[in-house]
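User: Here's a chain of 54 residues. Predict its fold as tokens.
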Amino acid sequence: WAEEAVAKAEILRLIYQGRFLHSNVTLGALGLPFGKTTVMHLVPRENLPEPNSQ
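Assistant: Prediction complete.
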């Protein structure tokens, strides 16, 4: 997937249940069920919307 490579890893963002995860949120804080499959999306995006505007 060389044509889809991003210039820097710092712009990669996680989306969980339709919401961007901001850098101060840990995966552990989400309370994900242990041993279950969890679907997230990893997308390149420089800026994120404010948490209340999602």
